[in-house]
Amino acid sequence: MSELEKTAAAFRRWEHQYGGGMRRKAVVGQLNEMADLLAERHPRAVYRRLFGVAGSLALMAGHMSGDAGRDGVAHWYFALALDAAREAGDDDMGARVVNALAGDTPGHPLFGAPEIAGTAGACCEVLALRGRGPQSARCARMAAEHIATALGSREPFYVRSRVLDLLGLANVRLAQREPEEAVRTAALSLDQIATLRSSRARHRVHQFAVRALTRFPQSPQAREFAEKVRATVPAVPPGAGRPRGAFNHAMDGPRTPAHL
Predict the structure, then answer these.
(1) Dmax of the chain from CA atoms?
(2) Fewer beta carbons under 10 A from the terminal one: N or C of the chain?
(3) What integer pLDDT is reported at residue 147 of this predicted model?
(4) Which of 2, 50, 74 is nearest to 243 (CA)?
(5) φ and ψ at 144, to 5 degrees?
(6) pTM of the model
(7) 44-58: b (≥16 Cβ within 10 Å) or e
(8) What is the DSSP letter of 164?
(9) 186 in the Ramachandran plot: left (φ > 0), alpha (ψ -120 to 50) or beta?
(10) Exposure string (b/e) for 171-198, b if CB count within 10 Å is 16 or more?
């Protein structure tokens, strides 16, 4: 594990010193290796460290893709970095993704304003959930604005993206200590999740249900929602589905709307 972390640190030094173009293939190759490791079963502590390495590599791949003029691919890698930061519980990485998105510009037809707003909102959502006090409140307000923009501008056929937006907004309402509104928002995603073959969406709704019940154990709405999710949405086993699907396509970058 420590060797993987040292390798990621070495790539990061090269990226800062020389820019991204020359080393991008090596970083993406290592990212694909991480996909195989994440598909195996590990203790939770090891998973968190693996996601930390994967997130660092994905963030570098995003910067390197931007250096190579592949802005749409860069956004795709930044989204992977955000997912990894979420799983690793790495606030600093989430903040770096926010900064990367703020300085990047769209260049791919699949990464228009809705996708950029949704990704920015998800970054702020992570920081709102992890932060405290004024910082959490400020990030929650920003997240809600970005996610509302994404929801209002997505085409109807981006069903999975809308589901993830709704769950992100529900998490923001938890950070704002509004459990009833959080559950109401999350409930809007359930019918759509039933029509999707998306382990990522299933994973996220189970995460929300646990988070809502943990933060607000006395809330009848949170208890009822958790029971409904357990009864109607199959759980995703640890190490299965969600991370593997995303990282296994790291070499190729985005190809179809299904990757959003």
Answers:
(1) 55
(2) N
(3) 92
(4) 50
(5) -60, -40
(6) 0.62
(7) eeebebbbbbbbbbb
(8) H
(9) alpha
(10) bbbbbbebbebbbebbbebbeebeeeeb
Contact (Cβ atoms closer than 8 angstroms) between residue 47 and residue 36: no
Inter-residue contact 99 to 67 (CB < 8 Å): no
Instruction: Name the nearest CA neighbour of 191 among 221, 162, 170.
Output: 162
Q: Which two tokens stand for residue 197?
A: 């073959």
Q: What would the two tokens of residue 86 be? A: 């979420």
Rg (C-alpha) for the chain, rounded Å, is: 18
* Residues composing the chain: 260
Q: Which two tokens stand for residue 200?
A: 């990522």
Does the pLDDT at position 254 exceed 50?
Answer: no
Torsion over CA of 16, 121, 71 and 36, rounded to 10 degrees?
A: 70
236 SS3 class: coil
Query: Do residues 49 and 6 make contact, with C-beta atoms less than 8 angstroms apart?
Result: no
Q: Which of 37, 39, 38, 74 is nearest to 59 (CA)?
A: 74
Q: 52: pLDDT confidence band, cut at 50, 70 and 90?
A: confident
d(CA 93, CA 71): 20
Measure CA of the first residue to CA of the last residue in the chain; give whole Å: 30
Measured CA to CA, the distance from residue 24 to residue 47 in angstroms comes to 24
**Number of Cβ atoms within 10 Å of the Cβ of 151:** 18
CB-based contact 69:106 (threshold 8 Å) = no
pLDDT value at residue 8: 56
* Tens digits of residue pLDDT in 83-101: 788 778 787 787 777 777 6
